[in-house]
Amino acid sequence: MALHDPDRAALIAGGTGRIGRAIAARLRADGYAVVAAGRADGDLSTRAGAHELVQKALAELGRLDLVVHAAGAGFVPVRLENVTEELWDEALGVTAKGTLFLAQAAAPALRASRGCLVIVEDVASYQAWSSFPPHSAAKAAQAMLTRVLAGVLAPEVRVCGVAPGPVAVEPGQEERRAAETLLGRVGSPEDVADAVAYLANASYVTGTTVVVDGGRMFKTGTTRFP
Fold first, then answer.
1. DSSP state of 49
2. Is CB count within 10 Å lower at the N or C end of the chain?
């Protein structure tokens, strides 16, 4: 028997990170029963791990109306000549493979509830960050999967993306990162959570991404790299 019998239930993969925690808090405030999962709950870099995670969530929640992929790995600056297979596999594994296999595992439950999958991308999905080759490639693949999965899972399941800009900035970097945006300030994980909450309820929106970056992409275009 499920531990909860909610009107709405959500699984957040990567729910123990800064953005994931903010999403979990917002969804709980909106009335969702939430499983906020970390790596110990299922390794998204493997098909088996993604399926294990979804089964654990279903055992606890009894249903899934919303699944959020907010997990990531391999976000480290590295010169091209220093990229290793391990770093490449780490970035592509959780981000790209994890997105595909989480969707695969959750698809039956989401189809049953006519639910929604929200994928937390990155502005690096659309900009060439030369200091982060594995991360940029992984996020670009993830952004394409947002659109592919929207087509595959329609019409029962909506699939949308959220692409954050500078919202989880390291201490001391706030002024520099704020200057990169049109709004002249950095954002917060709660800004991303607001976008996820919107998409969860936007019943006529699928196959697209909401960019939450304070206008960073518009101001810097595609040629300025972090």
1. H
2. N
